[in-house]
Amino acid sequence: MKKYLKYILPIFIPFFILLLPATSFGIDGLTLVEQRVIAIFVMAALCWVLEPIPIYATSVLIIVLELLIISDKGLWFTKVDSPELGHLISHKVIMGTFSSPIIMLFLGGFFLAMAATKYRLDVNLARVLLKPFGQNPKYVMLGLMMITAVFSMFMSNTATTAMMLSILTPVLALFSRADLGKIAFALSVPVAANIGGIGTPIGTPPNAVALKYLVDENAISFGQWMLFAVPFVVLMLFIAWLLLTQLFPATIKKIDLDIKGQFLKTPKAITVYVTFIITILLWLMGDFHGMNAYVVALIPVAVFSMFNIISKEDLKKISWDVLWLVSGGIALGVALDKSGLAKNAIDAIPFAGLHPLLLIVGASLLCLLMANFMSHTATANLLLPLVAALGASMQGLLPYGGDVILILAVTFAASLGMSLPISTPPNALAYASGHIETKQMAKVGMVLGLIGLLICYAMLYLLNKISFF
Amino acid sequence: MEKINIICVDDEREVLDSVVRDLDYFSDLFNIEECESAIECLNLLEELDANQEHVAVLISDHVMPEKSGVELLTEVELDPRFMGTKKLLLTGLATQADTIKAINNAKIDNFLEKVWDPEELLQTVKELLTEYIVERGIDYQPYIEKLDAQTLYRLIR
């Protein structure tokens, strides 16, 4: 029975919600459409937490269910006109979430990452950048973490981790059995990848989800994001490095990471290097040329397609699951917003009495907790639309910087969930190396998660003080 | 979760038992099948294919009555339904001519000599299994604890 619960709950609870009378939710003037949005939201939450189906499938299901029961072109009986019906959402808007600018930004990021891997820019950069760190295990680890973090700002955290671990594992085999340094090294890579993802809007999907709610007067450009996120990453990396070298000191005196190969000098490879640099520069200089990050992201897509750098076969390897996972989150936000539910529900719940700082701390702690047990993106998909709605309605939040602060705290918290092998794919990969025990990962992950939140609060406080946003 | 099989073929019961015992490590996530002849193996392959199950690794002895291991592996190599299946020849009695055929025609992925080292067999199967799973685009996450980490890092980056 318990085994089937994960299939039964996501089907029956949403159905039950649909069948309840509208008055039972305690929200004044709840429309039928809004009630259906609640049901879809609950279904999404249950599916993402219990995972009866793959997490990206839940996203697709959200979009299709929205089209079927709350869109203007849905099933006939869902559109019967009545005073209680409420606002049906345009089907074009719902379908549009598949190709929202945020998805295009990620697509551009994928193209850059794929080209960098295909033309071995990543491995070659790693080789050159690791050189100055010498052979002292302590500093090699620092170098490894910094490079991992920088790469994961532009590539997926998982791919970065796999690449760095493939460089690292042959070296770990040389450590003696009792050398704790092995644990430090094996943990340093996923930790740096998870932290590094915070650095840019395209570093990790939760950042992209956050961008959906950082619009209009709250908009944050690519460069602005990096201006505060990169220092955060640097500080966190340094703390993680100190923690790892203290907890698991290496006894081995010298290590030598051997990375073979040389920079490719073919015209295609040079096109990749140049496009990579130009795209990043354009992203950073958004104010000068008038193009926003979304528009810039499509430039590498065009260039790499034109010169067959990303071929027809390569196109098939794009992680559509990640793009769809994010689309589903955006669609959930659209439904909450456009149906009027977000506004309606917030009005009904007496949040005025709640201290805004309590809300920031509470929401980010909840996010950190959830992100340790489930997908970071799914966590962001569920929590960000809620906190965005809450933040927008809460006047008390303004002295602390408004809803931007709340959204960023929750977004950062989503990336800091890394205390279990199941927390993130990078953690699972590192755990598979066989050098780490769950207990050790949990210790490091929990300490870094909590320190990360504290630093995040301090950073947001300072940003608010200097009126950064 | 996909059903993934590892098939062991040997006409000597004791040898077969000992191979299966050495591969017991995989038995909680993968299905380990035993066949006492090449013909039995071909029938099993038909059955597994009909159920849309994966044949990830095929470990075969060479010298067997009716049909030899190299003949069996060659047949599997040429069958498009088992594209990507990893083939391991486990034998002490292959002549040079047999070995040449095994490489050129059956395109075997690995060759181990009898008597084998259980550790080496386990490690080889781990690597072959990892390659099969990643190359066939099966989600590796449910199986990750039984896979070879280094091979996985190399293939998914």
Structure explained in plain terms:
The complex is a heterodimer of chains A (469) and B (157). Chain A is mainly α and 469 residues long. Chain A folds into two domains: 1-96 and 328-348, no CATH class; 101-315, no CATH class. Helix content of chain A is 69%, strand content 0%. The longest helix of chain A is centred in the C-terminal third of the chain and has 28 residues, at 438-465. Chain B has one domain (4-116): Rossmann fold (3-Layer(aba) Sandwich). Chain B has six helices and five strands, in the order βαβαβαβαβαα. A five-stranded parallel sheet of chain B has the order 2-1-3-4-5, with helices on both faces. In chain B, α3 runs parallel beside α4 and α5 (118-135) packs parallel to α6 (149-156). The model of chain B has no long low-confidence stretch (mean pLDDT 93). Classes of the chains: A mainly alpha (469), B alpha/beta (157). The interface between A and B is medium-sized, with 16 and 11 residues.
The most extensive interface, with participating residues per chain, is: A-B, 16 and 11 residues
Radius of gyration of chain B: 15 Å
- Assembly classification: heterodimer
For the termini of chain A, the CA-CA separation is 51 Å
Helix % of chain B is 40-55%
Order of helices and strands of chain B: EHEHEHEHEHH
Overall number of strands of chain A? 0
What's the helical proportion of residues of chain A? Answer: 55-70%
Biggest sheet statistics of chain B:
5 strands, parallel
Low-confidence stretches of chain A: none
Structural class designation of chain A: mainly alpha
Shape by Cα distribution of chain B: globular
SSE string of chain A, helix = H, strand = E?
A: HHHHHHHHHHHHHHHHHHHHHH
Strand percentage of chain A, roughly? under 5%
The side-by-side strand order for the widest beta sheet of chain B comes to 2-1-3-4-5
Provide the residue-averaged pLDDT of chain A. Answer: 92
CATH architecture of chain B: 3-Layer(aba) Sandwich
Cα-to-Cα separation, first versus last residue of chain B: 23 Å
